[in-house]
C-alpha cells in the first residue's frame, strides 16, 4: 500500500541529455566494446575496438564542443556543466585520444604492449609461449573508455556521492590495466596490486570524509555544503576532519606527498602506454575533482585548508625533486617528475582565484601533452627484452638516434620549465597566480625545487649526448604510425604552447568560472 | 517491523532495549575487528570479520535503517564473506603471511601511527557529536511511506545518475574478473575424449581412481596416507597441499577387530 503512494509521487528528475552526452557516449561505447569482445571473431576485434574507441572519444569531444558555454546543474544536482568542467572533459578526451594511439601501437612488439591472457601464470611455459605469439588482449579498449568516462564525470560531479562513484569508475579499470603488461609481468601484477590496495584504502578515507561532511552540513551537494560552511549549527570539528579525509582521497589520486608512495612503483610496473594515460588523464581528472571540491564546496574554509595544503604542495615539490635525483630508472624518474609537477599544479590551485584556476587548467593540459610524448619515446627505446628503462642504457643515445634524443631533451627541458616550452608558460602562470594571491612562500619553494629537479633532467641529457654509446645501448625502434603520431602531437603541443600559448590561455581564462 | 523501528528511534535518545543491545554487541564487534587483524590464520580472520559485520548489521537495524541492516547481513556477511571463505578453502588455508619485515620497524610505526590517528579522530568525533541531537529521522523514514521506499525514492530521483553510473562499475568488475581469471584455450589445446581415454590406459598410468587417505583404517586425519596391501604407504592417496603425517607405532600396527 505504502509503495503505491511512493510510486505516484516519484518523478524522474530532468536530465539534460545534451550536457550529459560526453559521458553517456563514452559509457555507451564502453558497453558496445564489451559486446564486441563477446561477438566479434578474434582476428577482427583489434581493428573494430580501435575504430570504435577512436570514434567514441571523437563523438564525446564533439558533444563537449557543442555544449561549450553551457552553465547549469543537471541530473537533480548531481552533475555540473560549466566552463572548468567542460574544459577538463575536453582535455581528458584529447589526451585520452593521444594515449589511445600509444596503447594501440602493435608494430614495436608483436601483439602490442599488453599480455594476451593476463590469467596465465607469469613465467610459466604457457606464458613464454603467449609472450612470443599471442596478440594482446583487446579488453583494454572498453576498460579505457569506461575509465575516461569516469574521469569526465569526476571532473563534473556536483555532489560528493557522485564524485565517489566516478572515482571508483575511473580507478577500477586503471587497476586492471596496470596488471596487463606483456613483459615483466610479475612487476606489473605487483604494481596493480599495490595500486588497488592503496587506492581502496584512499577511497575508504574519501568515503569516511563524505560521511563526516554530511554529518556537518546535512547535505552532500556542493552548493549545500557551501551554504552550510557559513551557518551550520554543528561542531566545526566535523567539517575539518571530513574535509581532511576527502582531501586525502583526492590527494592520493593526484599523487601528492605524502600520499605519493604508490606512484613510482605503479608507473614503473604498468605497461608504458597505460603509465602515459595515468600521468596525463588521471592527473587532469584528479585535479579537476580537487579544484571543484576546494573552489565550489569549501571555498569559505579556504583560510583553514590553505596552510595545510600549502605545506603539502611544498612537501610534494621537495619530495618529487629530491628523490628524482636518486633514480636510475627512466620510468621512475618520470614518476617522481610527475609528483613534483603535481606540486606545481597545487601551487596554482591554492591561489583560490580566477587566475589560479585558469593557470592550473593550463598547466594540466601542457603537462599532459609533454608527459604523453615522453612516455611515448620511452616505449621506443628497447632491446630484445622489451623496453630498456635503466638510465645507464640511455647513455650515448644521442649518437645512435639523434632525432629521438633531441625530442626527449626538448621534453625534459619542458619539464624543467625552460622558456620557449609549454613548461615555462605553465609554471609562470601558476607562480604568477600564487604571488597575486599572496602565496609567495609557495612560489619560493617552487623556484628552489625547480632548480633541484633540473639536475636529474640535465643528467639524462648529458648522458644521452656526451657519453659514448656502449655495447648495451639499445637501438631506438622505428615507431609505427600510431606512436609516431602520438609523440609528434605531444612534442608539437609542448612547443606550440611555449611559443604561442595565447589561444589556450584565453580559453582557460574564459572557462575559469565554476557554477554552483 | 518498520513502524516499530521508526518508533524506537524517534524518541531521539538511546535507551532501553536499544542501549542494551548496543552495549552488548559493541564490545563484541570491536574485539572481533581486532581479532580479524590479529589472527594468523586467514580462515579465523574471515570468521572474525563475519561476526563484526553481523554486529554492524544489527546496529543499522537498531538505528531505524532496516534496509541497510538487511543488505549488510545478506550481501556482505551472507554472500561476499562466504564466497571469500570458499576461495580460502580452495586455495588452501596454509598460505599465511610472511612475517619478515622488509622495512625495519615498519610494523611498530604503523601500529603507533594508527593508534594515534584513531585517537585523534575518535576524540574529534566525540567532541563534535557528544551532545548532538539527531533530528529528521522520523521524517526521512515516513515521507515516502517507510525506510525502503525512501531509499528507493532517493535512488531514482536525486541520485539517479550516480546509480546508473554504478552499472559501468559493475561491468568493469565483471570484465576485470574475466581478464584476471579466465584462460581461453586455443582449439589445438582442447583435449577430446578419445585422447583422454588413450592417455588413461597408456603404459605407466594407473587407470583406476586414486586410493582414499587412510582415515578410517589408521587415524582421524586426512593427512594420514593409506596403507597398501603390501604394507607400504601410498602417496597417491593424499592431497599434495597437505603435509604428510608420520604414523605412530600404535597407529601403524595392524588392527584386529576382536579388541574393539
UniProtKB/TrEMBL annotation, chain A:
Q: How does it sit in the membrane?
A: Multi-pass membrane protein
Keywords per UniProt: Cell membrane, Membrane, NAD, Quinone, Translocase, Transmembrane, Transmembrane helix, Transport
Q: Which residues cross the membrane?
A: 17-36, 48-66, 86-103, 140-157, 193-217, 237-262, 274-295, 307-326, 333-355, 361-381, 402-421, 441-466, 478-500
Group of enzyme by EC: translocase
EC id? 7.1.1.-
GO cellular component terms, semicolon-separated: endomembrane system; plasma membrane
Coiled coil regions, renumbered to chain: none
Write down the InterPro entries for this protein, in alphabetical order.
NADH-Q_OxRdtase_suN/2, ND/Mrp_TM
What biological-process GO terms show up in the record?
A: ATP synthesis coupled electron transport
Q: Which domain of life is it from?
A: Bacteria
Location(s) in or outside the cell: Cell membrane; Endomembrane system; Membrane
Subunit structure as annotated in this protein's UniProt entry: NDH-1 is composed of 14 different subunits. Subunits NuoA, H, J, K, L, M, N constitute the membrane sector of the complex.
Q: What is the protein name for this chain? A: NADH-quinone oxidoreductase subunit N
TrEMBL record, chain B:
Asked whether the keyword tRNA processing is assigned, the reply is no
Q: Kindly state which reaction or reactions the protein catalyses.
A: a quinone + NADH + 5 H(+)(in) = a quinol + NAD(+) + 4 H(+)(out)
Q: Where is this region: Disordered?
A: 203-260
Q: What class of enzyme is it?
A: translocase
Q: In the UniProt record, does the keyword Cell membrane occur?
A: yes
**What EC designation does it have?**
7.1.1.-
Question: Care to name a GO molecular-function term for this sequence?
Answer: quinone binding
Q: Where can this protein be found?
A: Cell membrane
What keywords is this UniProt entry annotated with? Cell membrane, Membrane, NAD, Quinone, Transmembrane, Transmembrane helix
Q: State which residue ranges cross the membrane.
A: 20-39, 46-62, 68-91, 111-129, 159-181
Give membrane topology per the record.
Multi-pass membrane protein
NCBIfam families named in the record:
PRK06638.1-5 (NF005165)
Per the record, the similarity remark reads: Belongs to the complex I subunit 6 family.
Q: What does this protein do?
A: NDH-1 shuttles electrons from NADH, via FMN and iron-sulfur (Fe-S) centers, to quinones in the respiratory chain. Couples the redox reaction to proton translocation (for every two electrons transferred, four hydrogen ions are translocated across the cytoplasmic membrane), and thus conserves the redox energy in a proton gradient.
Official protein name in the record: NADH-quinone oxidoreductase subunit J
Amino acid at each position: 500500500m505504502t509503495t503505491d503512494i511512493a510510486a505516484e509521487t516519484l518523478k524522474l528528475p530532468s536530465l539534460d541529455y545534451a550536457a550529459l552526452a560526453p559521458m553517456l557516449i563514452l559509457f555507451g561505447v564502453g558497453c558496445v566494446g564489451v559486446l564486441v569482445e563477446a561477438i566479434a571473431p578474434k582476428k577482427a576485434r583489434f581493428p573494430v575496438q580501435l575504430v570504435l574507441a577512436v570514434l567514441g572519444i571523437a563523438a564525446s569531444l564533439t558533444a563537449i564542443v557543442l555544449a561549450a558555454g553551457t552553465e547549469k546543474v543537471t541530473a537533480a544536482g548531481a552533475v555540473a556543466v560549466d566552463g572548468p568542467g567542460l574544459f577538463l572533459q575536453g582535455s581528458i578526451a584529447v589526451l585520452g585520444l593521444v594515449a589511445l594511439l600509444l596503447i594501440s601501437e602493435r608494430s614495436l612488439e608483436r601483439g602490442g604492449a599488453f599480455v594476451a591472457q593476463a590469467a596465465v601464470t607469469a613465467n610459466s611455459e604457457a606464458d613464454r609461449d603467449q609472450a612470443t605469439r599471442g596478440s594482446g588482449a583487446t579488453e583494454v579498449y572498453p576498460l579505457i573508455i569506461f575509465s575516461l568516462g569516469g574521469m569526465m564525470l569526476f571532473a563534473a560531479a556536483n555532489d560528493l556521492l557522485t564524485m565517489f562513484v566516478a572515482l571508483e569508475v575511473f580507478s577500477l579499470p586503471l587497476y586492471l590495466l596496470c596488471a596487463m603488461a606483456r613483459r615483466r609481468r610479475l612487476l606489473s601484477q605487483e604494481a596493480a596490486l599495490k595500486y588497488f590496495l592503496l587506492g581502496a584504502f584512499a577511497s575508504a578515507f574519501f568515503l569516511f570524509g563524505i560521511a563526516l561532511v554530511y554529518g556537518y552540513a546535512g547535505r552532500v551537494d556542493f552548493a549545500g555544503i557551501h551554504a552550510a560552511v557559513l551557518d551550520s549549527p554543528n561542531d566545526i570539528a566535523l567539517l575539518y576532519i571530513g574535509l581532511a579525509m576527502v582531501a586525502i582521497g583526492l590527494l592520493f589520486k593526484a599523487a601528492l606527498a605524502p600520499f605519493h608512495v604508490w606512484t613510482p612503483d605503479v608507473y614503473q610496473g604498468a605497461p608504458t602506454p597505460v603509465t602515459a594515460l595515468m600521468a596525463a588523464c588521471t592527473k587532469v581528472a584528479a585535479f579537476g575533482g580537487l579544484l571543484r571540491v576546494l573552489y565550489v564546496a569549501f571555498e569559505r574554509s579556504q583560510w583553514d585548508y590553505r596552510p595545510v595544503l600549502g605545506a603539502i604542495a611544498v612537501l610534494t615539490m621537495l619530495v618529487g625533486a629530491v628523490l628524482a635525483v636518486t633514480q636510475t630508472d627512466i620510468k621512475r624518474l618520470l614518476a617522481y617528475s610527475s609528483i613534483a609537477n603535481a606540486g606545481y599544479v597545487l601551487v596554482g590551485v591554492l591561489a583560490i582565484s580566477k587566475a589560479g584556476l585558469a593557470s592550473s587548467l593550463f598547466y594540466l593540459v601542457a603537462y599532459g601533452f609533454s608527459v604523453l610524448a615522453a612516455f611515448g619515446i620511452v616505449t621506443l627505446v628497447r632491446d630484445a627484452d622489451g623496453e630498456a628503462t635503466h638510465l645507464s642504457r640511455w647513455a650515448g643515445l644521442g649518437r645512435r638516434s639523434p632525432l629521438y634524443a633531441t625530442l626527449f631533451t626538448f621534453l625534459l627541458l619542458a619539464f624543467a620549465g625552460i622558456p620557449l616550452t609549454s613548461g615555462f608558460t605553465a609554471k609562470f602562470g601558476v607562480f604568477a597566480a600564487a604571488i597575486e594571491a599572496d602565496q609567495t612562500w609557495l612560489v619560493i619553494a617552487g623556484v628552489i625545487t625547480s632548480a633541484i629537479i633540473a639536475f636529474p633532467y640535465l643528467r639524462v641529457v648529458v648522458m644521452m649526448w656526451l657519453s659514448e654509446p656502449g655495447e648495451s645501448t639499445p637501438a631506438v625502434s622505428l615507431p609505427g604510425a600510431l606512436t609516431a603520431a602520438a609523440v609528434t602531437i605531444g612534442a608539437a603541443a609542448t612547443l606550440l604552447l611555449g611559443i604561442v600559448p595565447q589561444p589556450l590561455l584565453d580559453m582557460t581564462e574564459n572557462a575559469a568560472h565554476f557554477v554552483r | 517491523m518498520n513502524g516499530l523501528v521508526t518508533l524506537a528511534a524517534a524518541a531521539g535518545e538511546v535507551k532501553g532495549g536499544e542501549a542494551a543491545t548496543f552495549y552488548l554487541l559493541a564490545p563484541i564487534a570491536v574485539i572481533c575487528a581486532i581479532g580479524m587483524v590479529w589472527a594468523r590464520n586467514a580462515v579465523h580472520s574471515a570468521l572474525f570479520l563475519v561476526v563484526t559485520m553481523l554486529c554492524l548489521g544489527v546496529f543499522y537495524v537498531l538505528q531505524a535503517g532496516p534496509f541497510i541492516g538487511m543488505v549488510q547481513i545478506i550481501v556482505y556477511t551472507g554472500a561476499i564473506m562466504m564466497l571469500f571463505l570458499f576461495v580460502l578453502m580452495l586455495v588452501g588455508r596454509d598460505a599465511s603471511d610472511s612475517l619478515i619485515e622488509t622495512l625495519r620497524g615498519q610494523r611498530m610505526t604503523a601500529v603507533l601511527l594508527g593508534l594515534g590517528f584513531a585517537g585523534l579522530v575518535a576524540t574529534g568525533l566525540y567532541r563534535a557529536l557528544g551532545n548532538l541531537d539527531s533530528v529528521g529521522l522520523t521524517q526521512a523514514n515516513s515521507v515516502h511511506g517507510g525506510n525502503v521506499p525512501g531509499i528507493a525514492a532517493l535512488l531514482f530521483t536525486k541520485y539517479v545518475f550516480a546509480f546508473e553510473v554504478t552499472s559501468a562499475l559493475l561491468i568493469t568488475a565483471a570484465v576485470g574478473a574475466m581478464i584476471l581469471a579466465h584462460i581461453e584455450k586455443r582449439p589445438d589445446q582442447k583435449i577430446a575424449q578419445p585422447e583422454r581415454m588413450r592417455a588413461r590406459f597408456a603404459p605407466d598410468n594407473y587407470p583406476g581412481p586414486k586410493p582414499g587417505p587412510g582415515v578410517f583404517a589408521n587415524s582421524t586425519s586426512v593427512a594420514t596416507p593409506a596403507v597398501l596391501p603390501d604394507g607400504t604407504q601410498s602417496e597417491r592417496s593424499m592431497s599434495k597441499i597437505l603435509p604428510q603425517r608420520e604414523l605412530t607405532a600404535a597407529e601403524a600396527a595392524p588392527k584386529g577387530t576382536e579388541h574393539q
